[in-house]
Amino acid sequence: MLIHALNFEQASIIAAVFCSLIAAGFLKGIIGVGMPVVALPLLSLFIDVKSAAMLLSMPLILSNLPQALEGGKTGLCLMQLMPVILGMIPGLFLGVRVLLALDANVAEIIAGVVLMGVGGVTLLAPKLQLQSRLVLPTGITFGFFGGILGGVAAMPGPVVFIFLLAKGLRGKAFTKEASLYLVVSAGLLAILLTASRQFSWLDVAVSAAAMLPVVLGMLVGQHLRDKIAPEAFRKLVLIAVIAAGADLLRHGFVG
Question: Which residues are CB-contacts of 27 (< 8 A; sequence separation ≥ 6)?
């Protein structure tokens, strides 16, 4: 399905997808996260939402793997993430089933709502502080909804990031847990999509190749990271994401 969606006979589609992935990598290079938040609305201008989710699966894994393994103690980090993962697994199964069952217009409407919601919540960034006795149930709950968003719109991160911040994680500790979660969730997403009849292992290879423009964007973003105020840039990007979600919503209803 991804091969047909990209339509290699149209060079303009390939160029547009390539530039969209560079832009998403650029954001990740500057602020360290947010690649699918930019990539999905851009890609949805040129290919359908289902194909966009498949295309982003391998770049999500590969771009976060170095940060997930950085500093060692990955096994301990995985155990700390277990409440989130326990909730994420059924949520992701549900989200993927919803995505695959929908027609293109309905998928665009849901993706638009998701983008607007995630962009708004991330922009407002509520500051929460969890008590230790609430970590397990809250982690499962946030993981479940993160899994649904991961399945429907390839965006498993923003909801779970709020939970990780509420646990008190900051700096490298936050980056490691967030990156490891994205690797696990994106890996499961790729397996579930490939196991369906709509995608194949050839689509996985195309998704892995999509890492090239993401890396190019990340290198440029990392080079400019110290020259741009990350917080101001993040807010501008999220405002653009909310606008893109509204446009997806409009397109889904009109189309």
Answer: 34, 35, 37, 38, 217, 221, 233, 237
